[in-house]
């Protein structure tokens, strides 16, 4: 992995974009204290260097619930029988390809993986467990924790200039 050099302005740009990536280049430049052309060049460089992976819209599950229903969200711990590199990679590739898996973390010690999954309802969650866990002979243990309330969701990476 090649080294990336960041100065205080780059860090301020990244922090501002994490808070609101929809703002105009002119607004971003003014907030950070640089000219719009400089701002545009720096943001393009940060994208090219892979520091900005993508821009997404964060939806409000509470507001959407009136239309779509609340659904289920669960944090699921997975332990595998075999933890060699090939077995871990194979399980990871399979679960990250599933749209119901919102996050996949390979962890240690304890379980091998922690997943955050979303399902429409309990039958949908049951189908998810069948296709991702029960059908996999290498899955030894599954422990699910169902969300009752989301008190905080903040995808920002802490940056200290």
UniProtKB/TrEMBL annotation:
Q: Which GO terms describe its cellular component?
A: cytosol
Q: Name one Pfam family in it.
A: HTH_24
Domain of life here?
A: Bacteria
Q: Keywords in alphabetical order, please.
A: DNA-binding, Transcription, Transcription regulation
Q: Which PROSITE patterns match?
A: HTH_ASNC_2
In the UniProt record, the gene name given for this protein reads: lrp12
Q: Record's InterPro entries?
A: ArsR-like_HTH (IPR011991), AsnC-type_HTH_dom (IPR000485), Dimeric_a/b-barrel (IPR011008), Tscrpt_reg_AsnC-like (IPR019888), Tscrpt_reg_AsnC/Lrp_C (IPR019887), WH-like_DNA-bd_sf (IPR036388), WH_DNA-bd_sf (IPR036390)
Molecular function terms from GO: sequence-specific DNA binding
Full protein name = Leucine-responsive regulatory protein
